[in-house]
Amino acid sequence: MSKPVLQIIVASTRPSRVGAAVGAWVAEAARAHGGFEVDVVDLAEIDLPIFDEPHHPVTGTYVHEHTRRWSARVRRANAFVVVTPEYNNGYPAALKNALDYLNREWWYKAVSFVSYGGVSAGLRAVQQLKQVVGTLRMVPVADAVSIPFVARHIAEDGSFRTGELLDASAKRMFDELRLVGTPLIPLQSGGGAAL
């Protein structure tokens, strides 16, 4: 039996971001967990323009190649971890745009969040995101990772320094994504590998 595909979405596209370092740690932890095939999606590399499709996403009628590529990538995933900062008490516009491009590709897939920021650890961004992903028929799991004062975790070389608490939180998150995601696979339209 093949492993389910866990897509890790790095949401920040700012040139000065720490999201790429946090995302690299999440991907490494997911691979070490061993329960998933891991696919890292960096929205800075995907570089979707502001939504430019003439048809509503629920139709699945895409005229632009960038949308067809994005659709295929998301459709292949069985579950998601969104790595997001908090900007002005919310989440990045690039993430909202990426979510809004598609519709059925997101349906009935488990999702969790690794959020980071200052004292709030990105939790306000996650609260807003839960409303959006719920509307897309995604299933947010309870376990997540919240990183307060993220700058303290960034080494001089730009890498992310983890710790026992964060590592344990990540393991619980991956365990729950497997547990909750397993019964959802038959409901996914065009989903990826079976659990």
List the helices and strands and how they pair.
Layout: E1 5-10, H1 19-33, E2 37-42, H2 43-46, H3 65-76, E3 79-85, H4 93-100, E4 110-116, H5 123-135, E5 139-140, E6 145-147, H6 164-181
Parallel strand pairs: 1-2, 1-3, 3-4, 4-5, 4-6
Helix pairs in contact: 1-6
Description:
The protein is of the alpha/beta class and 195 residues long. It has a single domain, classed as Flavodoxin domain (Rossmann fold). It contains 6 helices and 6 strands; from the N terminus they run E-H-E-H-H-E-H-E-H-E-E-H. It has helices at residues 19-33, 43-46, 65-76, 93-100, 123-135, 164-181, and strands spanning 5-10, 37-42, 79-85, 110-116, 139-140, 145-147. Strands 1, 2, 3, 4, 5 and 6 form a 6-stranded parallel β-sheet that branches. Helix 1 (19-33) crosses helix 6 (164-181). The model is unreliable at 190-195 (pLDDT under 50).
Number of strands: 6
The radius of gyration computed from the alpha-carbon positions, rounded to a whole number of angstroms, is: 16 Å
- Round the mean pLDDT to the nearest integer and report it: 94
The CATH class: Alpha Beta
- Binned, the helix content reads 25-40%
In the CATH hierarchy, the architecture is 3-Layer(aba) Sandwich
Number of separate domains: 1
* SS-derived structural category: alpha/beta
Give helix and strand order, one letter per element, not per position.
EHEHHEHEHEEH
Short description:
36% of the residues lie in helices and 16% in strands. With 195 residues, the chain is an alpha/beta fold. It has a single domain, classed as 3-Layer(aba) Sandwich (Rossmann fold), CATH 3.40.50.
